[in-house]
Amino acid sequence: MAGESSSDLTIIVHKNPSESHLSELGIKSWPKWGCSPGKYQLKFDAQETCYLLRGKVKVYRKNSSEVISEFGAGDLVILPEGLSCTWDVSVAVDKHYKFESTTSSSSSS
């Protein structure tokens, strides 16, 4: 069905990535973001790669009770562009993040 393509948006979770992999990505130089426990409606307009220093998150498909991913402290997570979802944060999150600037020329905000 047209318009249902959002169901192919897969969240990739790398459990316990190696220190060398993390330093290769330059994670410590990425900006940080945190949130307290609660539910958050999020939409990703660009692919985001993030590394959780702490926290525990369940991700639900938008307007659904279907859990599409779970991750927490020590996980490297890749969230696809175009994903709309609800984050159910049970343990406060502290993470490093980076957006892939696929369309860096057209940064109209």
TrEMBL record:
A Pfam match: Cupin_3
Gene source species: Helianthus annuus (Common sunflower)
Protein name (Swiss-Prot/TrEMBL): Putative rmlC-like cupins superfamily protein
Domain (S)-ureidoglycine aminohydrolase cupin residues, every copy: 22-97
